[in-house]
Amino acid sequence: MKEFNQKVAVITGAGGGIGRELSLQLARQGCDLALADISEENVTETQRQAQQLGVKASIHLVDVGDAEAYQAFVAEVIDSHGKVNLLFNNAGITLQRSFENHSIEDWDLVLRVNLWGVIHGCKFFLPHLKAADEAHIVNLSSMAGFLGLPNQASYSSTKAAVRMLSETLATELARFNIGVTSVHPGAIATNMIRNTLDRADDQAKAKKTLETVEKMAMPVEKAASTILTAVNNKSFRVRIGKDSVLLDLLKRWMPVMLHKLIIHKMSGAKRAVAQS
Question: Which UniProt keywords apply (predicted)?
Answer without folding.
Answer: Oxidoreductase
